[in-house]
Amino acid sequence: MRGRTARTIVTALFAAVVFGGSAGGPSVLASPTGETAHGHRATLTFTKWITVNPGAPYMQGIVTGDGIVNAPGPFNFAGQVLIYNQSGIIPNLGPSVPVNNRGQLGDVTQLAAVYEVQSGDHSFRALVQGGDDNTTKHALLDGVVLGGWLAGETVHVQFRDIQCSPVRPEAAGNTCFQGTIAITPGPDR
Fold first, then answer.
1. 8 Å CB contact between 47 and 98
2. CA–CA separation, 60 vs 52, rounded Å?
3. Which of 1, 41, 40, 84 is nearest to 181 (CA)?
4. What H or E segment, with its residue span, contains residue 58?
5. Do residues 172 and 51 make contact, with C-beta atoms less than 8 angstroms apart?
6. Inter-residue long-range contacts of 14-21, CB under 8 Å, 24+ positions, other chains counted
7. Whether 104 contacts 88, CB under 8 Å
8. By CB neighbour count within 10 A (0-12 exposed, 13-18 middle, 19+ buried), where does 54 fall?
9. In sequence order, what DSSP letters do the residues of 74-91 get, joined into one string?
10. Statement: the pTM of the whole predicted model exceeds 0.85
C-alpha cells in the first residue's frame, strides 16, 4: 500500500510540473478524445535523440504510425527527461566488476519523461516513467496521456539505443533511440 501511495504522489507531482511548465509552449490540447486506428489502440514508431545535455535533457525526433488516422507522418516528437538516476549496484560488487558497455558503472537507469507528439488533431502529451537497462540498451516505460488526443489512456513505451543513421549532428554523441509508443484504453474504459 505504501508503494502505491508514493507512486500516486509522484504522478501528481509530475502532472503539476508538466502543466505548470507548459504556459509558453505549443498546446496539444486540441482534441481531448479520439478513436485509435482499430477502435482500441494506437501504435506509433519513433526515432528520437538528446539535443541538450547535461541537466534535464531535451529530446526531439520523428514519429509515424498506424494510430494517426489518415496521416502517415512523419510528425514531430519533443520530450524532456525529468528524472535520470543510475543505480549504484555495480560499484558495490567490488573492483573486479567491469564497467558496462556504455562506460557507466550503474546497470539500470530510472527514467521519467514528458513525451509530446505534434500531429494536428492527433497531438498529445504523455508522462511516462520506468527504466533503461544500460547493459542491453533497452528501455521500458509506462504512463498516461495527460492532454490532447486520447487523454486519459495508458501509454507503454519501449526503445533501444542505436547509432543515428543518417548522422544527426544535433544528437548528443550521434546516439538515437528507436522504439514504439503504444496507447491503450485506460482501466476505466
1. no
2. 10
3. 41
4. strand 58-65
5. yes
6. 14/82, 14/112, 14/114, 14/127, 14/129, 15/127, 15/146, 17/82, 18/114, 18/125, 18/127, 18/146, 19/146, 19/147
7. no
8. exposed
9. -EEEEEEEEEEEE--HHH
10. no
Q: What is the Cα–Cα distance from 162 to 160, expressed in whole angstroms? A: 6
Q: What are phi and psi of 72, to 5 degrees?
A: -70, -15
**Separation of alpha carbons 54 and 90, rounded Å:** 23
Tally of residues, the chain: 189
Q: pLDDT, tens digit, for every residue of 66-92? A: 655 555 567 899 999 999 888 877 666
Task: For residue 28, give the C-alpha cell.
Answer: 496539444
By CB atoms closer than 10 A (0-12, 13-18, 19+), residue 75 is: buried
Give Cα 22 distance to the centre of its chain: 17
Report yes or no: 40 and 60 within 8 Å, Cβ to Cβ. no
The x, y and z cell numbers of residue 29, run together, are: 490540447
Cell of 65: 504510425
